[in-house]
Amino acid sequence: MRMDDPLLCVRGLKVGFPTADGVVKASNIVDLTIRAGETLALLGETGSGKTVLGMAILRLLQPNTRIEGEILYRGRDLLSLPQEEMQKVRGREIAVVLQNSGTSLNPVLRVGDQIAEAITLHRGLKGAEAEAAAVELLDQVRITDPARMAREYPHRFSGGMRERALIALALACNPSFLIADEPTRGLDAVTKREILNLFSEVNRGRSVLFITHDIEAAASLAARVAVMYAGEIIEIGPVDAVLSSPAHPYTRGLLESLPAKGMRPIPGSAPSLIAPPPGCRFFPRCSCGAGRCEIEHPGLVEVGPGHYARCMLYD
Amino acid sequence: MPGRNTALYLSLGVVLAYCAVALSAPVIAPFDPFVISGPPLAPPDATHLLGTNDLSQDIFSRLIWGTRATMVLGFLGAVVSVVMGTAVGIVAGYYGGRVDEAVMRFLDVMMTIPFFPLLLVLTIFFRPGIYVTAVIMGLLGGLGSVRIIRSQVLSLAVADFVVGTKALGARDGYIMARHILPNVLPLVGVKFVTSAQHFMLVGIGLGFLGMGDPNVVDWGQMIERASKNGGIVLGLWWWLIPPGLAVTVISLALAWFAYACEERINPRFQVMRV
Amino acid sequence: MRAAYLLRRLLYSAVAFGISVTIMFVILRLMPGDYITLYLEGIYVIAPPEVVQAYNHAYGIDRPLIDQYFSYFLGILQGDWGYSLSYSRPVLDVISEKLVWTLVILLPATILSIIAGIAIGAYSGWRRGSKADVALLNGMIFLRAIPSYWLALMILLVFAFYLGLFPLGGYVSLSALDTGIDPLDVLNHAALPIFTLFLFSVTGTYYLMRNSMLMTAGEDYIVTARAKGLDDMTILRRHALKNAMLPMVTRVALQCAGMLTGSIFVETIFSWPGIGMLTFEALQVRDLPLLQGILLMDTLIVIVANIGADMIYPFVDPRVEVGNDARA
User: Fold this and answer.
1) pLDDT tens for residues A97-132?
2) CB distance from B270 to chain C under 8 Å?
3) Is the terminal CB of chain A with fewer CB neighbours within 10 Å at N or C?
4) B274 lies in a domain?
């Protein structure tokens, strides 16, 4: 593998959830690449499919989910790996910091034990050694009095501390790739900044897929950003380019809805993913849609160096 | 899943069949259940499909007539239970505060007294007929459903549409009847079916223990008499087994029905956060 | 903090017990006819007035009601639960004796049903929708719907009568008259009752465990565990099970509470001389003091079991501290 071959390459990913009303197509032909040491931010609102994408990479979705496509990690297609092989990848090669820190830790096990479990599993350390390593990790994520906190239960941790603990857990085995799903959701501004700082510090040199709805957080951490809407990537490119000169109308609308920029919301709501519109999925809410947009489904078109947008305006 | 619908219809069919039998007993039973109609303890034959018991009564006819007692015990009891439980539950949950507290405290105490033993003691003293027995079971059993209904009502009472209706000036009684009641009906419906099943089993169990109404043909009493008269030792299977089988089948049908309904009411799908 | 909570709980339970006693007194005294007459009707068809009067006097019925209430209440607290008409012994004595025999079959059945219920309920819930789960669930619904007395009867018929594998009833064979009570013999007699009681209670435990596991399986921390790379069975054992078992504490309490109800049919059918059988006998002869005592005992067991569960719960669930009525 060459130095700048992508670490992770998602090709044509389609995820569908069968429900009583039909299949929810949460992800539609997603193509994504992430290089070694690179942080890619995945931006989008709730329901855009960003968490699904993150979960799909580690195959953590429900068993009856329909997944098509390829997810190549270091050249191997994760979707075709047998369970035992996948288990070796999880935690060791690719780790995830889940959304919702309040419920992501087992309430009846001590925090230190939960971290030590991962260490024992992948690094082979046992008993006291694993515990010591866990304490060290808690220290690295700047939890005060890590030895004592390791013996505590999750409900004793504050929101920010739980987030740190989850980060520690994810980094326990020094994975090459980290998926972080909304690590700062629900935290106050001060804590948020601390966590983001910590995050960038501990992940130097690591590939990160940073899933968020927070544009500022994305701007501060990522080198590249991908914007998702209704299950599709509608814009992707270097973070400066996308955020200062957004190509897609949705991205533009997103930026304008920020408090700092005037807080103008985008009218309308996201389409149903069971029966999405045939043409451009953003068309119903787009202020500059043309007839073509309604019928033809746009592909990703280059609008700048490394900058692509899925819009008829550029086709 | 095809299985669920068939279970629903099949069980409903069985229940309706039992009701039909109960209603048409005088017509379809070959003999009067209390009349001497042949030799005692006779095994099944052409005239007596299930033989006769120790008092020379036709068992088959008794089996058919016994359906009535079962239906009364189950459904009357369930009606009383559900009406009481729902009324109290709605009032407690809707008004909240002191009323709710009082009801909960009362329940806490009443629930420490075990249902069945209390029922036994009451039965032995009052020696009630099946109608009164059904009512007593309903009252005692209804206490249990108050909690469940109340918790649903609690969340409904603060729901926007209720608050809105209140703001429009609607009276409490109106709100409770028109807005809250329909929303708890599914829960109430399931409770009705499970209560009916429970009361049938308990009511017949009372008969089995000798606490039944001697004026009525009751499957429990049949089993009791069968075992008392050497049913087990003498292997009088035609007397011993059919009543028990009859109870079991209706009980199963009601249980299936309740389960099938419950599955429909409870959305079990976990929503994946996207 | 803990002591205060404990005290409060005890006080509350005491009040509940007191109210139960009062309710029972009210129900049983303020009624048409009285229990003495009722009992005597079982012996004589028309009891001669001197006999009735003698009984009434011996049992204090001819005293004013308030008097009766207080002496009854105080008696309860002192351990005098009345005098059994049919056994001619203090009620509490009779009950205690028989309670032991009930425990002989009840404890093994309860322990077994809890272990089995947890094991298959957990597996069923974890592998929801699988063939095993569907089969187990349907089986349990079926089992649960069968009336207890009929199930017991069928078991007796099939295993004891037709197959002759186990004795038809009682707790010892006739040979005990000569050789004394042989534990193996008792075990032989207890086998079917234990099995039947086991079948009754395992369904409830199974349901509860399965539901609990269904909820636990959907929790976020299970996803975390999978994300760590743990395999399915390990996650079930180490993460899911502990959480799903928390409601079991309450379940065990409830089961103790339902002790009498469960045993009455089994003991009657298998002629096992425990408290259930006692209840049946007392019902037949209308021995009200005894019945009253049994009802009180059952209530007491319910109260104790509930307090016990409340006390134990904080030790199993680290989130709940004593004093928090946060029990699910």
Assistant:
1) 988 888 899 988 999 999 999 999 888 888 899 999
2) yes
3) N
4) no
Looking only at the bridges linking them, the beta strands covering A207-212 and A39-43 are parallel
For position B75, what pLDDT does the model report?
93
Residues with Cβ within 8 Å of C157's Cβ and at least 6 positions away in sequence, in order, are: B232, B237, B240
Residue with tokens 């997603």: A30
- Across chain C, mean pLDDT equals 81
Q: Can you give the pTM of this predicted structure?
A: 0.81
Beta strand pairing call for A66-73 and A6-19:
antiparallel
pLDDT for position B266: 61
3-state secondary structure of C90: strand
| Structural domain includes residue B49 | no
- CB-based contact (8 Å) between A253 and chain B? no
> Does a structural domain hold residue B196?
yes
Is the residue at B20 inside a domain?
yes
Structural domain of B245: 2-29+58-266
Contact B274 A20 (CB under 8 A): no
Residue to mutate among A89, A108, A115, with most C CBs inside 10 A, is A108
| Candidates B269, B270, B274; nearest CB to A26 | B274
Chains linked to B by 3 or more Cβ pairs within 8 Å: A, C
| Cβ of residue B232 closer than 8 Å to a chain C Cβ | yes
**How many structural domains is chain B composed of?**
1
User: All domains of chain A, ordered by start, with CATH?
Assistant: 6-101+177-190+200-314 (3.40.50.300)
The count of C-alpha atoms lying within 13 angstroms of the C-alpha of A140, restricted to the half-sphere facing its C-beta, is 19
**Chain-chain contact of B272 with A62 (C-beta, under 8 angstroms):** yes
Per-residue pLDDT tens over the stretch B33-82: 788 877 777 777 777 777 777 787 888 888 888 898 889 899 999 999 99
* Residue B176 per-residue DSSP state: I
Q: How many whole angstroms separate alpha carbon A51 and alpha carbon A305?
A: 27
Pairing relation of β-strands A177-181 and A224-229? unpaired
φ and ψ at residue A177, rounded to 5 degrees = -135, 130
Are C221 and A106 a contacting pair at CB < 8 A?
A: yes
**Percent composition of chain A: helix, strand, coil (DSSP 3-state, to 5):** 40, 25, 35
Name the CA dihedral angle for B243, B244, B246, B252, rounded to a multiple of 10 degrees.
170
Burial of A70: CB neighbours in 10 Å, binned 0-12, 13-18, 19+:
middle
What residue spans of chain A are helical by DSSP H?
50-57, 83-89, 101-104, 111-123, 127-140, 146-150, 159-171, 189-202, 215-221, 239-244, 249-256, 291-295
Q: A118: distance to nearest CA of chain C, Å? A: 6
H-helix or E-strand spanning residue C83: none
Q: Which residue has the tokens 């409904």?
A: B156
